[in-house]
Amino acid sequence: MAAPATPDSAVARIIIENCAIATVDADDTEYASGHVVIAGNRIESVGAGPAPEGLEGVVRRIDGTGHLLTPGLVNTHHHFYQWITRGLATDHNLFNWLVALYPTWARIDEPMAAAAAQGSLAMMARGGVTTAMDHHYVYPRGSGDLSGAIIKAASDMGVRFTLARGSMDRGESDGGLPPDFAVESLEGALAATEETIDRHHDASFDAMTQIAVAPCSPFSVTTDLLKQGAELARRKGVRLHTHGSETVEEEKFCHELFGMGPTDYFESTGWLGEDVWMAHCVHMNDSDIAAFARTRTGVAHCPSSNARLAAGIARVPDMLAAGVPVGLGVDGTASNESGELHTELRNALLINRLGPHREAALNARQALRLGTYGGAEVLGRAGQIGSVEAGKLADLVLWKLDGLGHSTIADPVTALVFGAAAPVTLSLVNGAPVVEDNRLVTVDEDAIARTARAESQRLARIAAEG
After folding, report:
1. Would the pTM count as exceeding 0.90?
2. Shortest CA distance to 75 belongs to which of 159, 139, 196?
3. FRET pair for 224, CA 20 to 30 Å: which of 126, 158, 335, 365?
4. In the predicted model, what is the mean pLDDT of residues 253-277?
5. What phi, psi does 63 have (nearest 5°)?
């Protein structure tokens, strides 16, 4: 539950009114024309019609005519570093794609990680993401403070952020996919993860930075790392994240190496539970879905990346029907070059309609819920973000829907999900603007693009030299 709003005549207030509102609360409450009052970093009230008269401390009043207001989008799976390796290995499946790109990724350093994080975050934030997540698992020896660089980029951008501190300890010589020089030792990975939690994790209601424990995948980590990683996360009170059931090749790998499928393997290592969420979960049978539902294990659905790598169509309608928490993810931009989460609302709906449920798979409001409340639930923050309700944090997006791309779609939620990517007139995090008039206000977009391009070219040179 959200903490109750406490009106304070001294606090600064922002009023947004005359806009359509999709609250994405438990009842899917919507207003054809409504208002939101923000007091400090909290939502103070939301309702139909104009805001109440006589409110004190109003510092800004926004006319939302022609707009839809929603909760900020929540990204549940990403790999920021891939921003500087976009457009490579475009005709590969997952395993071949990883083999092609690991040698390049294993040469990233701190300036590259910083530039890539800035680019990834900027693209998402400009498209309505207010809570971002990065699963970073490549820590080459001597590469610098990669976690610190990524966290700083999110702080500078002004977005809420979860760093899933990843790790790999199963290199090629042990039957894994990554080259040996790209992996950490078991002890080193656990120690570095614990240090990251101690330095950066904030458990408070309005935390801007949180840390999760995130060994990469069954084919790049040992069983010991999974088991001890789960123990570390629960001892520290943080969440757990990994890749799971992404491809048929992974299913085969798990059966050959462990004698069981991915879900049973994860359960045997302590990796099912309400504090766990996994990326992709494409190849899950009825028993797998039932196990996730029983344990409240979450899923980060990445429709564009799944299609880009020909992984398949995740059974999202069946997961939702069973009660599995599901959010949306961009995934790394080497497998989803657009890097935008708001396009995933549309892609999730369209791709799932290619599956057995056809037109009944998902509707516009279910897609919006996946990208907002569903994501908040998966990240363990549904009490603070993900819906427009009094007492929750003021992470909100005002989408412009009266332009050419949406002007003839009467229903605003349908316009947002089915239509072209909508411009963001205003995006707030903690009540502070991050985007105004479709432009980032906290950072210099053009400078980020120049720096990322330079670091991408530097990485390509280093990789070519071997």
Report:
1. yes
2. 159
3. 335
4. 96
5. -85, 110
